[in-house]
């Protein structure tokens, strides 16, 4: 696909595209150089581009590639390359799999050997992937095998699916928390339709038997499911749609499909030729059958490189009055989503190609599955059945959002999914932008009932997306919400999004993109690049000392010159009944920040030069530690992004501890603002980043510890784990007080107003923020605990494997064993 | 198992450009521009004409925005803004240093080619910042790229239209201290 990208010049012109990579490109009368290329190059090019051209009938393209291949059968390079390329495409561009299978089926009529070559490599690769626990690749290879079912002997892939199922049962019986078994059932259910599409009548009984078994696992809600629900509605409220796990949906959709004679109307059937080619069609049907080599599946299967979780079907187009995406009862919803999500995640190394797949989605499914590209939503409304009202753009971007809003984490960094949406919007703005607009409205409407982590992802994506498109948005439609309390979730979203926009641009510019009522949300202090230095004002206590320290820092004066000023502050503070260290810390930190106010590099250098004094202050008392954070947050209050970045660096220098940051945010600052801090995006960001820092550090240690050569002892690991646990405990305790309304500041506040019954609107809002925060960090804690369990298992497994290898080595008795014996001797010595 | 040397079926965006490997073997129309990646003028964005940013050139603003955007790919260890050699003002490129190589690759894949305040960001992997490389190498003090562009589009001033972000490769915490002296000198 991308082989042609450059030549295309980037323009999006479907008419022009039609000739782009035709193998018979001479229609254009252009240079025929391509025909000089050796067959293996031509076959590669054509296979890579298979099905991309919507103007070319599938049966023609498939036969032409198959013939070009079999006509040049003597070319050994071509033969081996073909097998490798088919297998690689199956996992790199999974939407093309049915078309690859069709080429193989046609080639089978002429050179049946190719199928045996392919199956041999397919099964040996599958075995490796199963052993490694690379479950997506397993699924994608099985999909290819499934599409080849019509040329397989006996029951074809069914025995493999049954074997996988028996593993799933073992795993689920052993532990109800098991996620591998769930994943295996998902793979089975997603392979089944591709088998059935090759010959529905022949396999009906087999399919029914298998589905009867999978029902037991797919029908039951996974215990981890509650943890990863995208919605977290308030008591008395409801999620926009009842959450359903992907496998339970699949199970019922397949059941519907079975009742419907396995119509599978969305799947392409490129091996079906038009009636006039009945002879060739018969040849395909009667071509040689091949035995699928046995696939060894180890007794114990592993979770693999990606942590597994049950998945929940998420859609931003739920509850629309028009069916612009497949309904949840239809298997198409799961099949198209699955193919898109794989494409998106596999092709993370080229988002441009991903975006093109999204826009050209309809090329890879049966004709008439979708409405015409770029049909406006209003026109979709007018479409009458049996014509499809599924809007390809909605289906495509919905798949990206499903990843962006998947818990606990999508496969790639969130910014990847931002970039895919940006790219899709750039490629086909008229088609994609309106779909995104409806998605934004849905998310905004439901943001208050979404999990808080997801609301924040929405805010982050929204501001980043707008930054790529001139910050234009129809802000007027939310204008009423500007007047809400800052504690209201909609207002909090608006404020957070505007802050993030400013961080990617600058205040004056963002102000100009907003309607008048919003402009008051951007105070004049935001337009200053460098904040005011409070000690420049002589009325500020310690103004003289502040100015003096700033001057000393600016000329990089030695420590001995600073010390006397600090001492002067201490004695002044004592005279005024202030905590001396807190007072001097505020003066000193604020001066450091002011000296480094020009850029982040400047402030880093300033911190670097003063880190000893800062570390000492932080280490001496909790009050001083808290003051460091307060000073940073106060100085940079107009630009919280900078403040957060500085806090992050102070954590790196160990001047601050994670506990101090969390304590400042959820207790000190939240207390001082009577809970309003919990509604501020940057406060959440600060706590979240700190937690991520701690947990990713622990993960690194645990991962390293699985390597026997890393020699990390249990004590080190335990200490790290305990550190993380106590951090999570502290967070939960502090948040519980807010969520339950037992926080002192809340009680005091309501006392003042004379309504201590916990029912005032403000109190309700604060409690709700507390609940939402609590859920996020409880989940993070649970996810990390699960990771610890898996890492321990992995560590034991590797240690056992190493021991087994060591024990087995001397018994081998060949030349190779000598080295191992030596190695073993070394280890025991 | 599939051959790991196999090239991908689609081009990868996280490969370094040929700049550092082969400075001379470039056959493009404007071979004078040997500092930067390929020219993107042909598909420049229309917003360029009413660019609201044409006066916002302070070091601080640029620095903050770059930090905000680039940290979406991982924590940033160091940011060195490119300066005009003569005027010591920003001239449109910078070095962004991450803690891990993976973050740098992700930046190539997910940020290169997107916009930051109306300017398209072009990224390239870089073997590492050295003192002196923060200065533009053009005759006028700025980026070579800008000079070349001025030949065609006068009235754009010396400010580059695009930020060239070059990144350093993987770096571990230990080397951080080794760099301190040099780091301090950057101010």
Automatic annotation (TrEMBL), chain A:
Transmembrane segments: none annotated. Pfam families: MIF4G_like, MIF4G_like_2. The lineage of its organism: Eukaryota, Fungi, Dikarya, Ascomycota, Pezizomycotina. Residues 19-37 have a biased composition (Basic and acidic residues). It comes from the Eukaryota. One of its GO terms (biological process) is nuclear-transcribed mRNA catabolic process, nonsense-mediated decay. GO terms for molecular function: mRNA binding; RNA cap binding. GO terms for cellular component: nuclear cap binding complex; nucleus. This is Cap binding protein. Residues 326-516, 533-785 form the MIF4G-like type domain. Residues 1-37 are annotated as: Disordered.
Automatic annotation (TrEMBL), chain B:
One of its GO terms (cellular component) is nuclear cap binding complex. CDD domains: RRM_NCBP2 (cd12240). Keywords: mRNA processing, mRNA splicing, Nucleus, RNA-binding. The keyword Cell wall biogenesis/degradation does not apply. One of its GO terms (biological process) is mRNA cis splicing, via spliceosome. Residues 24-49, 128-187 are annotated as: Disordered. It is found in: Nucleus. It comes from the Eukaryota. SMART domains: RRM. Residues 57-128 form the RRM domain. Residues 33-49, 164-187 have a biased composition (Basic and acidic residues). It holds the Pfam family RRM_1. Belongs to the RRM NCBP2 family. This is Nuclear cap-binding protein subunit 2.
């Amino acid at each position: 696909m991308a082989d042609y990208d450059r030549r295309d010049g980037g323009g999006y012109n479907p008419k022009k595209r039609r000739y782009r990579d035709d193998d018979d490109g001479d229609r254009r009368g252009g240079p025929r150089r391509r025909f000089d290329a050796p067959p293996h190059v031509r076959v590669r090019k054509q296979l890579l581009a298979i099905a991309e051209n919507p103007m070319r009938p599938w049966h023609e393209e498939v036969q032409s590639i198959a013939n070009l291949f079999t006509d040049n059968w003597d070319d050994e390079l071509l033969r081996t390359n073909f097998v490798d390329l088919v297998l690689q495409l199956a996992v790199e561009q999974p939407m093309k799999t049915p078309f690859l299978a069709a080429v193989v089926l046609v080639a089978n009529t002429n050179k049946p050997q190719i199928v045996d070559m392919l199956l041999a490599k397919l099964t040996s690769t599958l075995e490796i992937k199963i052993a490694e626990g690379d479950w997506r690749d397993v699924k994608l290879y099985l999909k290819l095998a499934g599409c080849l079912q019509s040329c397989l002997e006996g029951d074809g892939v069914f025995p493999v699916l049954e074997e996988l199922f028996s593993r799933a049962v073992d795993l689920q019986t052993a532990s109800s928390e098991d996620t591998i078994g769930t994943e295996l059932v998902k793979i089975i259910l997603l392979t089944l339709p591709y088998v059935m599409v090759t010959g529905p009548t022949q396999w009906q009984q087999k399919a029914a038997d298998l589905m009867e078994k999978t029902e037991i696992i797919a029908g039951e809600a996974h215990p981890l499911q509650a943890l990863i629900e995208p919605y977290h509605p308030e008591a008395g409220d409801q999620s926009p749609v009842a959450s359903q796990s992907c496998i339970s949906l699949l199970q019922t959709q397949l059941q519907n499909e079975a009742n419907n004679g396995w119509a599978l109307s969305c799947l392409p059937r490129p091996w079906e030729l038009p009636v006039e080619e009945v002879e060739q069609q018969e040849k395909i049907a009667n071509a040689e059958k091949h035995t699928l080599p046995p696939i060894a599946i180890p007794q114990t299967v592993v979770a693999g490189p990606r942590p597994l979780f049950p998945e929940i079907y998420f859609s931003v187009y739920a509850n629309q009055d028009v069916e612009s995406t497949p309904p949840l009862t239809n298997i198409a919803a799961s099949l198209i989503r699955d193919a898109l999500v794989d494409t998106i995640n596999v092709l993370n190394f080229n988002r441009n190609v991903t975006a093109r797949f999204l826009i050209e989605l309809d090329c890879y499914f049966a004709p008439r599955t979708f409405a015409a590209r770029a049909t406006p939503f209003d026109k979709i409304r007018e479409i009458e059945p049996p014509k499809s009202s599924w809007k390809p753009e909605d289906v495509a971007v919905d798949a990206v959002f499903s990843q962006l809003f998947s818990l606990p984490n999508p496969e790639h960094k969130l910014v990847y999914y931002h970039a895919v949406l940006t790219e899709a919007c750039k490629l086909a703005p008229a088609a994609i932008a309106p779909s995104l607009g409806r998605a934004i409205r849905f998310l905004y409407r439901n943001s208050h009932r979404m999990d808080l982590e997801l609301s924040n992802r929405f805010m982050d994506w929204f501001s980043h997306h707008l930054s790529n498109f001139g910050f234009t948005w129809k802000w007027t439609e939310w204008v009423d919400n500007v007047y809400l309390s800052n504690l209201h979730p909609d207002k909090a979203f608006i404020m957070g999004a505007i802050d993030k926009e400013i961080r990617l641009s600058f205040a004056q510019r963002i102000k100009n993109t907003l309607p008048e009522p919003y402009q008051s949300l951007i105070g004049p202090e935001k337009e200053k690049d460098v904040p005011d230095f409070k000690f420049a004002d002589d009325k500020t206590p310690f103004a003289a000392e502040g100015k003096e320290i700033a001057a000393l820092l600016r000329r990089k004066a030695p420590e001995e010159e600073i010390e006397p000023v600090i001492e002067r502050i201490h004695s002044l503070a004592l005279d005024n009944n202030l905590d001396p260290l807190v007072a001097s810390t505020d003066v000193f930190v604020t001066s450091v920040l002011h000296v480094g106010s020009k850029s982040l590099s400047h402030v880093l250098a300033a911190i670097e030069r003063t880190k000893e004094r800062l570390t000492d202050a932080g280490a001496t008392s909790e009050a001083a530690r808290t003051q460091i954070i307060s000073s940073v947050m106060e100085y940079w209050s107009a630009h919280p992004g900078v403040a957060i970045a500085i806090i992050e660096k102070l954590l790196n220098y160990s001047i601050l501890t994670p506990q101090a940051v969390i304590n400042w945010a959820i207790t000190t600052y939240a207390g001082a603002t009577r809970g309003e801090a919990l509604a501020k995006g940057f406060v959440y960001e600060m706590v979240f980043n700190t937690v991520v820092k701690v947990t990713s550090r622990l993960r690194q240690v645990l991962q390293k510890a699985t390597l026997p050569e890393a020699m990390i002892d249990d004590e080190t690991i335990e200490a790290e784990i305990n550190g993380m646990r106590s951090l999570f405990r502290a967070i939960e305790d502090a948040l519980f007080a807010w969520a339950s309304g037992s926080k002192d500041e809340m009680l005091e506040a309501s006392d003042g107003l004379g309504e201590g019954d916990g029912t005032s609107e403000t109190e309700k809002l604060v409690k709700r923020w507390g609940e939402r925060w609590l859920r996020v960090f409880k989940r993070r804690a649970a996810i990390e605990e699960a990771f610890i369990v898996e890492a321990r298992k992995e560590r034991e497994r590797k240690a056992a494997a190493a021991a087994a290898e060591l024990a087995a080595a001397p018994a081998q008795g060949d030349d190779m064993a000598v080295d191992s014996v030596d190695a073993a001797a070394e280890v025991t010595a | 198992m599939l051959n790991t040397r196999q090239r991908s079926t689609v081009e990868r965006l996280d490969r370094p450009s040929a700049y550092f490997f082969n400075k001379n073997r470039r056959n493009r129309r404007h071979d004078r521009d040997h500092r930067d990646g390929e020219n993107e003028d042909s598909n420049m964005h229309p917003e360029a004409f009413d660019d609201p940013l044409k006066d916002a050139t302070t070091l601080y603003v640029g620095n903050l925005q770059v930090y905000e955007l680039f940290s979406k790919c991982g924590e940033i260890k160091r940011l060195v803004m490119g300066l005009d050699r003569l005027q010591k003002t920003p001239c449109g490129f910078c070095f962004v240093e991450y803690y891990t190589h993976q973050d740098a690759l992700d930046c190539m894949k997910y940020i290169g080619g997107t916009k930051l305040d109306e300017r398209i960001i072009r990224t390239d992997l870089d073997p590492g910042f050295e003192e002196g490389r923060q200065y533009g190498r053009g005759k006028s003090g700025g980026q070579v790229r800008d000079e070349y562009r001025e030949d065609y589009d006068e009235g754009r001033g010396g400010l580059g239209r695009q930020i060239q972000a070059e990144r350093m490769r993987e770096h571990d915490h230990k080397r951080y201290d080794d760099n301190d002296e040099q780091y301090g000198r950057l101010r």
